[in-house]
Amino acid sequence: MPIALLQFPTDLIGDILTLCYPFELFILSDCSKKTRKLVKSKVTNKWKIQSIDSTSIDLKSGYIKKEYRFTIVEYPEFHYQQRTLMIGIGIYLMYPNEAVDELLKDVVEVFGCKSIRSIKSEDFEEDSEKFLDLCQAIIDLDLQVEHMDLNSYWYYDCRDFEELRDQMEKSKKINIVRP
Fold first, then answer.
1. Which InterPro entries has this protein been placed in (predicted)?
2. In this structure, what DSSP letter does residue 153 have?
């Protein structure tokens, strides 16, 4: 039997949301704009993005040791399936064209993340276009990146990356490590 969650007092809703896992909050925020706004108001500033690769984002809270991995899959039968990982728990999500930048925008919007601990360009070796889209999303969302490792050489040949790199270096929020 469905429960009319939005009809509860806001204090009680806040207590309920603090008991939820990030995956439950993320899925709940997909229900409507009102629930997304409610979830966002109750869980912001406690989550941090640990790392990003070409198909997944790892999220962690300061006081919880395990990580939560949001992974993009292309098969609908795996959508919203959860799995256990060595680092914590993972969930499969579907995004058009496996766009990790779109997933980043949703994760930042729902959890209010302001920073990313680490990004490695070598995780995007197969698809440099995704890396460029991700860099542009980071600039647009005004996120702080603690460590960006440009340990591969494909970006030297990429003219589109030069402009993005200059924008990222001008903002003192991104620490770029070169080989």
1. F-box_dom
2. S
Torsion from C-alpha of 121, 135, 118, 59, nearest 10 degrees = -120
DSSP 80: T
Q: Compute CA distances 4 → 16, 31, 33, 119, 172, whole Å.
A: 13, 13, 15, 40, 45
Residues 141-155 pLDDT 10s: 888 888 877 765 555
Tell whether the torsion through CA atoms of 139, 92, 72 and 33 is positive or negative. negative
* HSE of 175, CA atoms in CB hemisphere, 13 A: 7
DSSP 176: E
Phi-psi map region of 49: left, alpha, beta (phi>0 left; psi -120 to 50 alpha)? beta
Write out pLDDT tens, residues 102-128: 889 988 888 888 888 888 877 877 777
Residues paired with residue 170 on neighbouring β-strands, in sequence order: none
